[in-house]
Amino acid sequence: MLSINRRIIDKTKRLLWGFTGEGIVFKIGVYFLLTLIGFVYLYPLFYMVTYSFMNTEDLINPLITYIPSGLFWDNFERAASVMDYINTLWKTVLASFVPAVVQTVSAAVIGYGFARFRIPGKSILFALVLATFIIPPQITMIPQFLMFKDLGLIGSLFSYVFPAALGQGLKSGLFILIFYQFFRSIPKALEEAAQIDGAGAYRIFAFICVPMAVPAIIISFLFSMVWYWNETLLAALYLGKELTTLPLELQNFAVTYQKMFPVDPNAQTGRSLNEAINMAGTFMNIIPLLIVYFLMQRWFVESIERSGITGE
After folding, report:
1. How far apart are CA 85 and CA 230, in angstroms?
2. Model-level pTM?
3. Residue 256 has pLDDT above 60, yes or no
4. d(CA 303, CA 297)
5. Given its phi and psi angles, is residue 55 left (phi above 0), alpha (psi -120 to 50 degrees) or beta?
6. Dihedrals phi, psi of 153, to nearest 5 degrees
7. Which of 21, 75, 93, 173 fits a 20 to 30 Å CA distance from 137?
8. Taking the CB of residue 57, how many other CB atoms lie within 10 A of it?
9. CA distance 102 to 226
């Protein structure tokens, strides 16, 4: 009788707790924690999407909290007209895609040079490269602006492309470090075999190292593009009004909206700026980034796992 009760107790403990973290209690705790973390990350997006479809009556109705009574598309139409969405979207893609490509190429070349070639003072140069990532850009912003002004680069896309081509783009030091770690992990035997076959340094880099560095390339390009996309301070300082971006237009959204849609007290329908229109403009700003993430999610996750960005 005692042995039967003991077996029942052991089976119950095994069912609840398990021996290798497979018990019901452990799984419930893990799922609860993951759900809680997911809610913290997804709640702002859920709030933004639902409020962007609300009209004025939904906003002032205490019975409507998250789910709107209908899909009010006028918020997106007004937000698109305020930001000149199509034209500004093209300029934003241009101001983020081109520097990201140039920065990825330059970071790959510099990272390969540090990983494979012996040059005098390489450790000092590498420390200076890492210092460019550690030093806040606000410190070098004014001297760089004066230099770009003398070179006639202000108001041009070259104010982004020129530093990126020289390894001094937005957080280029981090990408150089990523490529440096990745190229160091490639066995030198492959390059030595290519040298025996008569391949030079440029051919080894282009046909052997670059194809193997696809995970690092994807990471560097995506992070670089997102950071250039979200940059507002340097964009306002270097690009000017001709190359305005969506984040810059979003900063001036309230002022521009009031100029385009002045409040008319005699109008039957309210045209004043409200939270729903603000959320619509914000949602339209991040839609392209969400599309890029969903299209490249699988390659992005694989690149994170395979690259040296985690320090492995």
Report:
1. 16
2. 0.81
3. yes
4. 10
5. beta
6. -100, -10
7. 93
8. 13
9. 14
